[in-house]
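pasting for the record
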Amino acid sequence: MASISRSFLDCIVRVNTRVVSINTEAKTVTAINETQSTTEKEDFTYDQLILAVGSEPLKPPIPGINRPGLFVLRNLQDMDSIVAWLQTLPLDGEEKPHAVVAGAGFVGLEMVEQLMRRGLDVTVVEMLPQVLGPLDVEMAAIVEEDMKKRGVNLVTGDAIQEFLPAEGDERSTVVRLKSGKLLPSAALTILGMGVRPDTKIIREAGIECGPRGHIIVDDYMRTNVPDVWAAGDAIEVRNPVAGNDEKWAVPLAGPANRQGRMIADNIYGMNRKFKGTYAASVVRVFDLVAACVGMNEKMLVQKNLPFACVHVHPGSHAGYFPGAKSVNFKLMFHPTTGKVWGAQAVGEDGVEKRIDVVSTAMQGQLTVADLAELELCYAPPVGSAKDPVNIAGMAAQNVIDGFVEQVDWKELKAVSSLPDVVVLDVRNISEVEKDGKLIEGAINIPLNDLRSRMNEIPDGKRVVVSCASGQRAYYATRILKQSARFSKVENLSGAWKTYSLVQNRV
C-alpha cells in the first residue's frame, strides 16, 4: 500500500521537537527543536490535547551506568546507536566479544537473540528469580532451559551493583553483581531494566497521575483537566479480569492504538468507553514463543483471589502429521465458577493463536466449560480435533466437577515426604531410564500394567499420580478412583514435563 502523505491528512508533523511544558489554563504547549543549537522555545495552542508520551527506560542510579558502551532501547535512534557501536567490534575474530543484557523482560530477551545472531557471547542478569516476569516460574523455566542450551549465560536472582571500566580497555565494562561476582568484560551492555511512564511534565502541568506516575483517565480516556486526553503506556486502565474497578498499567502497543482511535471518536462526540486491558502479550525468544493473557498466579495470590490451575502439554497439531510441537499450556480459573483468570503458553508453534482464543473468550465472559466446547479450525497440518484450548478447558472442567484432584508441582516434595503418601509414576520403564526418576521413592508402574499390578500399591494410602505430560496420569487416576483401597487419589498438575524443569526451585 502506498504511504499516506502529510498533505493528504492535512496535518503538521514536527519531528525532533520535544515538549517541555504544558499550560492547561492558556491551552498552550511549549516545545524546543532538538536539532537547533539554541534553546529557543515555541508555543503551540490547542483546542484538544492528546497525551501519548509513552514510557521511558529505567536507568537506576547504579555507579557507572553512564559509561560508554551502555545502551537503553526505546526508539530507532537508540537502535542506530547500538548498531554503530557493534560495527566497531571485532565480530569476525576467533574470540567472540561479550555482551551483558541487564534485565530479562521482553525487550531484553529479544536483544539476547539478536546479539547472539550477530556473533556475541551473551550474559543475561535478572534481579528476579526467573526471566519474563509476566509468566509464572514453571512456564518461564521452559524459556530459560532453551536459552541455556543455546549457550546463553543466565544469571537470575542477582542484581547489578556497579559498572566498572575494564582493565586496559576503557570502552569495555566489567559488571559487579550484588552477590560479589564479577562478570567477564563486556564490549556492549544493554539496559533492559524495565520502563516507567514519561510523565514529568504532565505532573508539572497539574494533570493527575497515580503513585507510580501513570496518568489517571476515566473510561472515555479523559484526564482530570478539561479537553486533555491520554493514551498508551503512560496511563492506568481498568483491570477487567480482577474487576471491582481495579486499575493496572499495561504498556502494550495494541491497547495504545485502540485507545488513540477511541479518543478521536470521543472528541467528535461518539462517547465510546474503553473496557480495560486484558494484557494479551507475546514474545519470541529464538525458536520459542511465549504468550500470556490476564493475571498470573503471582497476581492471584497477591490479590487473595480463589483460583485453581491446570497444566497441559498437547501438540500444536495432529500428532500423526509430521512436525507437531508441544504447546505447554497453563490455565488459571475460579475453582467453582470456572471464570478464566488467565492463561500462559510456551512452545515452538501455535502458541499465540491459543492465547488469542483465550483472550477473546475472557472478553466474552466465557468460562472453562465454554473453552471445552469451543469450535475451532481443524486440519491435521494446523490443529487437532481437540485443540489445546479445548483440552485445557476439559482439564479445568474435570477439576471443577470433582473428577480429578490435583497436587501442584510446588507441593510434590512436601506431600511425598508424608508417611501416608505414595507417588505413582505411570511412564514406561524406558522413559524413566531415559529422562530420570520423578522423585525418590516413587513407584513406577506403566499405565498399561496398572490394572494387573495395582496390588503393588499399599492399601489405605494417598496416591499422587504422574506421567510425562498428564494424560496417562489422568487415566490412571480414574482407574485408581474406581477402587475403594486408597484414601485419596490425586494427579500431579503438569506431570514430569512441568516438574522436571522446576524441581530444584522448591
